[in-house]
Amino acid sequence: MKGAGVSMTAIAQTLGVARSTLYRTLD
């Protein structure tokens, strides 16, 4: 289950980067 927690954190970080990149592109 420790691996699942790490992947969840990685997914959250990836989504955050993608979101900031998307807003930067739209802006």
Automatic annotation (TrEMBL):
<dbReference type="InterPro" id="IPR009057">
    <property type="entry name" value="Homeodomain-like_sf"/>
</dbReference>
<feature type="domain" description="Resolvase HTH">
    <location>
        <begin position="3"/>
        <end position="26"/>
    </location>
</feature>
<dbReference type="GO" id="GO:0000150">
    <property type="term" value="F:DNA strand exchange activity"/>
</dbReference>
<keyword id="KW-0614">Plasmid</keyword>
<dbReference type="InterPro" id="IPR006120">
    <property type="entry name" value="Resolvase_HTH_dom"/>
</dbReference>
<dbReference type="Pfam" id="PF02796">
    <property type="entry name" value="HTH_7"/>
</dbReference>
<protein>
    <recommendedName>
        <fullName>Resolvase HTH domain-containing protein</fullName>
    </recommendedName>
</protein>
<dbReference type="GO" id="GO:0003677">
    <property type="term" value="F:DNA binding"/>
</dbReference>
